[in-house]
Fold these 2 entries.
Entry 1:
Amino acid sequence: MMEVALAAPPLVSREAPARVALITLSQIRKTFGRHVAVDDVDLDLAEGECIGLVGHNGAGKSTLIKLMLGLFRPTTGSVRVLGADPAGSAAAPSRAALGYLPENVAFQPSMTGIETLSFYARLKRQSARVVPELLDRVGLAASGRRRVGTYSKGMCQRLGLAQALLGNPRALLLDEPTSGLDPAARQDLYAIMRGLRDDGACVLISSHALAELEGQADRVVVMSRGRKVADGTLSTLRQLAGIHPLLRMRMDGGRVVESACDEATLPGMLRTLPPGATDIEIVRPSLDDIYAAFLHQEDLA
Amino acid sequence: MRQTLIIAGKEVRDGMRNRWILATTLLLAAFALTLAFLGASPTGAVNVSPLAITIVSLSSLSIFLLPLIALLLSYDAIVGEVDRGTMALLLAYPVTRWQVVIGKFLGHLAILAFATLVGFGAAGVALWLGGDNDPASWRAFVVLMLSSVALGGAFLAVGYVVSIAVRDRGTAGAIAISVWLLFVLIYDMALLGVLVADQGRIVSARMLDILLLLNPADAYRLLNLTGTEGVSTFAGLAGLAGQTGLSLPSLIGALLAWIAVPLGGAVALFARRPV
């Protein structure tokens, strides 16, 4: 019924961003012994852009982020972050304009929220005045004097976000930031991300669910087994994934019929509906369907 | 420098929070005071400064205790932070890797120095109030306090190498204890065994000196037992030390080299370690 385009040239489309690239990965390959974590990845992250990085666990998302942080050196290829090689000796000053929220962020449990944030603020040469303001911004104003050891997972995540926002970063790397956040905190996070992006920062958010990024990411990069399998806006990805909308209806006898169509033929099909058809629905592919299609194509390739 | 001191300051604050500073200071003070009072009692007749006796017993105790405290402080310093995931975050800040190692080391050294100076100092104050005012012994006491900090620093630096070289905390702990056993217990016994078996045929006095410098605990022992006359006459077991040709500067140099070389190695290793 469904017709999925299985030809697999790399599905890349660019909306010609004329903006300055803050982070550039070119021809990156990273191996750990025999295991290839990232292979042949090119990526430009520009200012004023919010990019979603999507993939399964082990697809290479965290490796890419750690390459951008200079925690790993690429086996081959080059990385530039805010004008410097992040693994080079001269990179430390450039990290003043970088924010990072690790996956499963952890802090010293014996320090309070305020002490923790003050320590990181000093390292970024920020005045101590920003600390209460930031705690308030992430909704921790009331818990700043409590020890981090007493925080819930969500509160740690908020504190992690607060430290990532220190010094109004020009590049913000968030590794699975929504895990452990309740829906309200998630919306706060998205609002903060949008604010930074509108101020010209480059925001990278990694996730294992594409659906989560709907409406948040200007551009989505899909990783699978260390390779970049798609790169573009969500609407482009929809087209590239080759999944068609379904027209579903209930016929006279109660039988449910589905037929694949596309946006061009849909109006015609609607005009020629069989008599007696009820419960007419147009089922558009969900983001998870699109994601599954990309991974499926990659499996076949 | 600023970043290094910020990291050192955080290490000291952690030490206060988790009561490391309090515990080690009390432990050292308790031992030092006990030895001071025990040492002071039998000396009335032989006219030896009670301080000199205290120095001999305190230095013998420090050789066991300070390396152990230093290794326990340092073995987890890097591998533990990598394990908990706080190191990746720290390195995403405008700090270099050497600043992280040196900063943490300075913080730990400050903790150790505070505990030693306050703990041993308490004993010194007690003896001074007891009326001991032999200036040579007081000089030796100052040497004891400073060299104890240096001894701790040497084992801190070795602990950092261990903490960076291994992948998990359990291994680091096991290696740290082995390092302690090796330098504090096994080395001297092995050396003694070799000397007895060799009967002076191969191991010359010169070679023995070098072998003693290759262990920071031995350099520390010689520094404190031969340092001053009042002490060395009383340190009966220093028969070996009495014959050594090692000068005070070479002993101090050996202790400082035992800080600088492992610490340099730790910095170089950490530059290449994946986090």
Entry 2:
Amino acid sequence: MKLARLLPATTVYAHCDLPCGVYDPAQARIEAQSVLAIMKKMQDNQDEMFQVRALLIKEERAELVKRHLWVLWTDYFKPEHLEKHPNLHDLFWRATKQAGEAKHHTEPEVGEKLLELIDEIAAIFAATKKA
Amino acid sequence: MKLWPLGLYRVSGDSMLPTYRPGDTLLGWRWFRPRRGDIVVVQRDRPLIKRVAHVNVEGVFIEGDNPRRSTDSRSFGRVQPSQVEAKIILKLG
């Protein structure tokens, strides 16, 4: 009954006073952009030391992508989100797996695919914020 | 005893999920004594909505239905029955 929402009512708080986490898929996206940028740079610079450093940084950034996605998945999303977006679990599974792929590979397409998956998650995230 | 027995309340926050969602409009009944299992409005620094976990001579222990997202008697202790303003009897929408 939507009309009930128009009634004047006292706001009662069902809150947590602890500083709650701030959730935003942008965190994962920034790290994934970094992964993609490293992949592109690795194609342009074959210097051995550069390649080693780039690999190390890519490894670290891809791990951060996973970490940020896991936090969103386990802490932000709730069962009622899953009801509305039944592909959520599969999407997170594919995105975190893709972050693993980004460790194994240096082709920018792998990084681009990772960004696409994060954007799909971001779209669902935005939809839940509107609700 | 309050003069008028009914109160209208609107939920803000997640701590009563899955029972009540943010934005739900609830009807409360004020002429009552809190009992275990009641969902109640409690006056503190701001009005809270929580569930009565148990009641004894020391007061009323209240908890959110979604404990991971709730600040309640687990952190601030029992509340006094005089702080318990209403019990929820109906969800209007």
